[in-house]
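Question (not urgent): is this output format expected?
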Amino acid sequence: MDDNKKIIERIRKLLAVAASSSGASENEMEIAMRRAHALIAQHNIDITLVENSPEKEEPVGTDTFHWGKTGNANRAGPWSRFIAMAIAKLNFCGYYYTRVGSHSDAHIFIGHEVNRTVARMVSQYVIDTIAAEARQQARLNPDDKAYLNTFRNAAAKRIVARCDAMVREATAADSAPGTALALRNAYEREAQAVRSYKEEKLDLRTRRQNARGGSVTGAAAGAAAGDRVSLRPELGASTSPSPRALK
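Got this back:
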């Protein structure tokens, strides 16, 4: 029990360093986040023990990150928004976006600071990975004009499905009883905090997004890429572990 307390305290300290308010460099924050996740996974720490910090709970806020054209890999568009929204939900955050010019999106994550940091890091990794692979594969299929968009949209569809499945599996009644209940409570609590923040501080409008495609080979390759990409890159995982509430 004493060993667990020491590990939990170490995780809390790492998460404090990973927070943007810590004053640490971007590299130091990323390293701290990865170490915290690794300790949680390695020792199977109950998330409620990490959450019950003696310090005052931080407020809900927003982080904004811009993605657009980098070289020839266009990261803006519905496909990247779908990915960011799904990963935000998986990591206990809300999400919305705004257009910046004609080739860039501002992705905004709503939630507690550590959750926002994780959602942003994973989203950026996944979007960059799919964008790069889509462009690479499209070069191998120069006569298929619909290949690039179809690839990205199919990959996004699979990633959204994987995120939804991870949440369902982690909170299912037949999962580990204590962990499943804690996760359900965490998702409900964080969702309510995000809703309250939106109602009090934001004036958002909803808009239907369409992800179209017309390439059979692009759809198959994109779906395969969406299955391969890690949704927990900080753990180096290729499978779908249970999500954890970190704050």
